Amino acid sequence: MSGSSSSARRDLPLGVFDSGLGGLTVVRALREALPNESIVYLGDTARVPYGTKGAATVVRYALSCARHLVDRGVKALVVACNTVSATVAPERLRIELDIPVLGVVDPGARAAVAATRTGRIGILATAGTIASGAYPRAIAQLSTRAEVVGQAAPLLVPLAEEGWTTGEVPRLAVRRYIEPLALAQVDVIVLGCTHYPILRELIEGEVHRRIGPDVAIVDSARATAHEVKTFLETRDLARHGSGEMRSVHLLVTDVPGAFRETASRFLGDAVSEVEQVDL
Amino acid sequence: MSGSSSSARRDLPLGVFDSGLGGLTVVRALREALPNESIVYLGDTARVPYGTKGAATVVRYALSCARHLVDRGVKALVVACNTVSATVAPERLRIELDIPVLGVVDPGARAAVAATRTGRIGILATAGTIASGAYPRAIAQLSTRAEVVGQAAPLLVPLAEEGWTTGEVPRLAVRRYIEPLALAQVDVIVLGCTHYPILRELIEGEVHRRIGPDVAIVDSARATAHEVKTFLETRDLARHGSGEMRSVHLLVTDVPGAFRETASRFLGDAVSEVEQVDL
Question: What is the pTM (predicted TM-score) of this model?
Fold first, then answer.
């Protein structure tokens, strides 16, 4: 417990993992909120998507990703995947790996409950996350009066991956997906998939046009980054500004070739090096 | 080699497999072309999609699907998956499993070469199939003068799975995907993904409007069914009309719950029973 060992721990990177590249929007939000932190990101691109797999398989995959990052030396883990966060309680990973673990569902749920005035909260997410009921469960633990309306939006992931973030195709798809949320008169909509921040501007525009200008959009990536910041600061785990450049190291489990362009779009920055690892 | 054993072999079902449910469009085409045949279909829904996986993984998965069907007793295998057909030569499965094997790429390529007058052939397929170069390779073996233009169309799979087969969203997406094929002045377009026949009518309409009424659409599912028919007839393996009902037996590797509705849409018929198997 010497000063130098806790300073060494502060200087360790954050470990972030996702089933694929969507979690890079969480990395982007983390870099904005925590400019001094280095990050090691693992995208399990060989086994993506987790959303169609059974719970036992998702637990096994998540543990192997988490262990790989812990073995590399990280000070905390961020599960930047709604499917994993909805299936494996962060608490379970924390106990198995003896390291702080934060997921994306709870921060999104907390931000939604904080933002709603009417108590009617809409969730846009993948079919798997909606079917898991993770958001309604997390919200129910925070507020007894909240009503949650979930809407699966399967086209938004391929639209984000294609880079079709403007124009009629994403606009009409979003319009169709938010219609049930408009009818339910929600006043908060959670982007419950790490791909969706890529389409945030368009979603926000359509929501304000159709439902009203006061509807709040909760981006679970940003909500998570803010909770990670608070977590690191209250535990004196935040890296001090040291003049040294913070780094982002990208790991994937499938051949990296095709991922560079998509990764750059999600990260909002050019991706130079991608390392392939075997899990 | 007695008459009764070859008649017993004729009465065995056809084995059809795919990474997911898209291959059910091939089953639909097989039922139309071969109304007397029984079919066992295996959709590897736990490990879908194969398109993002490395070649070694796809080979391993394909062999495990094929072996499962051979162990159940089938007279021939149809690989109703463009990714597998593009990665594992049907010949390799035939040698390893000692059973006739037909893929979807070669029949689609043959039908395209037969239909083209100008020699300019367009391919619509997933990013994985386009990147594999399987269609240009197969077409080059059939015709030295053909030019092939490939276009990845990643949104069409989720559109087909969502059942968004009419309206502005699929129309504008298809319009965008066929534009490069229009500029290349193709006179044949191959639907090189087993999901796409679900959108055939809409694709055909847009192609005729934008490129011209004489552009032929080659549906690799139908092309495959016709080759399977010829194959069974020339080898005296076709089941004779026996008054007994032919059956379609569906196997999946993930929890079957969510698949029934999509399966019915792809098969063009209500799906009553789905069996889950472990590979």
Answer: 0.84
